[in-house]
Amino acid sequence: MRGSSKTRALWLILFLEAALFLTLVSSQCLESFTKIPAPAFPIVRGLDRGAGSFAILSRFLFQNQDSLKVWEEKIFKGKTNFVVHQESEKGFLSAASRDACSGLYTKVDYEATPDLYLSWKWKAIRFPQKKEPGRLSNKSEDDFAARVYAIFPGSNFFKSNVIEYIWDENIRAGTVTTSPYSERVRLFVIQNGVAVPENDGWREEERNLYEDYRKLFGKEPERPVGVVALMSDSDNTGTQSEADFADFTFKKKSTVANRRSANEGKS
Amino acid sequence: MKVRAKWLMKHPIQANYLLIVILAMLVPTLLVGFCLYNLIFNLLAKQMVFPEAIMANLVPVIERVNAFLIFTLPIAALIILWFALVISHRFAGPIERLESDLDQILAGDYEHRVHVRKRDDLIGVAKRINMLLRILRK
Questions:
Q1: Class assignment of domain A42-266?
Q2: Average of pLDDT values for A82-99?
């Protein structure tokens, strides 16, 4: 009898501990539900007839200052000046940093399947001045005129894998390295040099996140892409940087286009 | 006031109580600590979003907290163990004393009385046994 009551007491203690543990863990999960992204005013959804071969999942345009409502700013040192400009009918975001580092991010949730693409337009205007311009992975000079992050959150944010698309002044496009901060962050230079006058300096990117992830991490993405972010920073070098960004779009190769290209392949 | 001479007894009941008290104190402490540790740093990391910010600002804090925990956790464990010993002795001590007094009486020493300390939980039982012995003697 004494033994059974002791066992019951032990079970009760263990039950209470398990309940406490589950409560704390579930409260952590609750955060992701309560943190609902801002209203998707500037997001356009649906099939983009103009693009033809892509179905647009979400599109982040910069048409007026309200367009920034879907983006959250993180300030790390000083504040990069983010201003939305109107250039004819198309708007863009200007990011100007003076010895400062802050970035904008927005949450998304897309399975990184082979047909998923992230496209955007950007223009690097002013590059941070570095003592060692040839070193991509350099903690003391980790500043870039323009970079775009695709973050694949892990079970927690310390285990997130991150692709950083970089526009650097000197390092040639195609250069890949690991961030000086973490093995899980890969720096990928996709543009270099001063923006050419052609197309008013704008460059358009269209990245297949699945392929880039495979190339940079050597495996398929296990989790969806959860955050896209942009930054222009100059805090480490104490100089200045400036870049423009426009039209971030998540899109999938439409099945119609896939079928058409498959048929073309057969014929 | 009489101070207890020894805190560890031979009676196995103390080991049982010791185990229960340690389980009831140490496990929740570690579980809650672990959950809070994870919760706080995960939420902070989630808020920072940018990996450079996490690595440059949050990771050094975590390393300092870890270093602090390496020193404080063994001390906390020792304190818990001490409390467990005191509590288990408070439960098991009177039982051992009662058993030894009853053994003496069963051996034929009917003049012997059961003694427990004033603040012990079994004082009511001891009083009743002594009363019973007195009645039986009459």
A1: mainly beta
A2: 87
